Amino acid sequence: MKGLVFHGPGRSAWEDVPDPGVQEATDAIVRVGAVTICGTDLHILQGDVPEVRPGRVLGHEAVGEVVEVGGAVRTVRPGDRVLVSCISACGRCRYCREGMYGQCRGGGGWILGHLIDGTQAEYVRVPYADLSVHLLPGTVSSEDAVLLADILPTAYEVGVLKGRVRPGDTVAVVGAGPIGLAAIATARLFAPERIVAVDLAAPRLEAARRLGADAVADAREAPEQLIGDLTGGLGADVVIEAVGVPESFELCTRMVRPGGRVANVGVHGRPAALHLEDLWSRNITITTGLVDTHSTPTLLRMVAAGRLPTPQLITHTFPLERMEEAYEVFSRAADTGALKVVLGGQRHEVVPAGAV
Length: 356
Known about the structure:
Blueprint: E1 2-6, E2 12-16, E3 28-36, H1 39-45, E4 62-69, E5 81-84, H2 94-97, E6 123-126, H3 129-132, E7 133-135, H4 142-146, H5 151-161, E8 170-174, H6 178-187, E9 194-199, H7 202-210, E10 215-218, H8 223-230, E11 236-241, H9 246-255, E12 256-264, H10 276-279, E13 285-287, H11 296-304, E14 314-318, H12 323-331, H13 333-336, E15 340-344
Parallel strand pairs: 8-9, 8-11, 9-10, 11-12, 12-13, 14-15
Antiparallel strand pairs: 1-2, 3-4, 3-6, 3-15, 4-5, 5-7
């Protein structure tokens, strides 16, 4: 079969790799029908995730058809169409029993495309299939479903739920990339008074408006002043950090009101200053987290009911064999307008950049 193989920083190739097989009784083998590319995949290619060794097939999000299962698998069978979650869960360790699947100590957690071969291939072995794949209704397209593998549960769980968004809140989302846009879409489910999106790129701010932001601000133009004007000088009730750089985190702490919450979703590769000299007296809660995907069944029902605008997050589609081209488009998002890039699925035409 073919797969996208990491060959060290800056090097990857769509090439022949061995077909996966059942190794444990809890495994499922899935024929991949649709995959997407994550910002984390770009971090891997830049050499920022040293645990990923050369020779690894990348990817941790997919939709496909089960073709083989181990003897202990009970919830799916060959022929089933499934969502492959970015998080694998053993179901037995302390963290899995508490629903914290991302912290699994039984051999799961984020392993696909990280510690074992991933989903950006024609077939993938999925460990712990009973808790790590989800049956898909026929009413949900592969393109919509693949967004449930990572960005929607990540934005919802780590941003909206950990930030405790409530009716009537002012919510600021710093970063209007795919995760930030997904946070805007899922925050709306809780009826906040307003959502303000902050970013450097005008096309992404426009996308934020289409997905439900009530106001937008250029990150270079003192967005904390806009938040102050909208809230009578108090600040935002919830600020969601969806970039992962020190400057954006520090901006979030300046925008939050006393007693408010900062929910960090961004993946940070550099230290960020925590200005406790300013924050200690303001009763601020700061949360972080790796997605657990415990919300995936709920979000799947919301997508099936048409309550989440998943099609608006997808800007480009490609056939699976054009993986390298898709990476090029996604890695140059500032030039191409790429948000989410989907390969495979039910459409194979390339959607023009920015058409959401």
